[in-house]
Amino acid sequence: MKKILSALLVFLLMLTLFTANQPEAQANNPVSGQYNLFIVEMMGEQCDPAEMGMSGSLLLRDDGTGAMISNGAEEILPSWSEENGTVMMVDSTGEKLEVELKDGVIVMEAGAGYYLYFAREGMDTANYQIIDHTPDSILYGIYKNIDAKNGAHLDYEYHSDYMDSTSVFDVHAKNGVYFSLRTTRTKDYEQLNANYFKDGTSYVLYPNEMRGNVATKISSSIITNNVLMLDDLYGLIYQRAWRSDFTTETKELDNVKYTAEVYPAQNYVAEVTFYYNSDGQLEHVLVGPLQKAPELGETFYTVHAIDDVVNEMLFDISGYTITE
Length: 324
Description:
outer membrane lipoprotein receptor (LolB), chain A; 10-stranded antiparallel beta sheet; 11% helix; 324 residues; 12-stranded mixed beta sheet; mainly beta; 2 domains; Lipocalin; 4 helices
């Protein structure tokens, strides 16, 4: 996992950096100097970059130029500027990044829930505490209350415009075991199957016939630490719960008004709207078409339950005939 996360963060870092308006050269600027990576924040947790195989630094020169070095690779910064605790940097392609500078520490957002902390060279960081980046969203509260270790249950259905099909999911997860019953309906047929995961092995099951087969071996600690990462709806919630670039609106569906949180589209990520009832419960999710593949259309989820009512009897598949 360390290698995967390291590669991800380095990729995000190099991909999203930098950009701003061209500043004037700045002689003897008190902000200039070298800043070294000393903390990686992941989903609110503080991590040592060295333990993840990461290293990095920012160099801000007096003349208004600079460089960023990430695991030995150098990115030239033709210009940078600072105003009221905000540092704006520009790279050779004209892309920009605005980062926060406070008490000698530069904080850079590398992705949703991922932050990089750079300390001015020579600064004592032994007791530094990460900044609270908890998003002020209804979605974040829902995400934090889903506990796959102690037991989580999701009951929902979704309709795909592209496939012209509706699928109903009944998902149960607890202590590293995952069972997802799926009923898919189209105008021509109905199919029932289940996905099951335990001890690093994923299975496809056919409950009506009490048979199944081994699908694949999964060693990724991202999955083994949270088996709900295998679920579509949870994946949508997880990927956006840490984002702060949402808008809160009032939207209407079938003559019912909802509080909605809208997460805008990104390069390869569709716009997603989460609809909440008056009690703050998630009732619907609308996933818009991908910008680069609009022909796929929209996907619409109707959520019936997100709770901790887990049917552990489903985790016993000893009655199935399993083929390798």
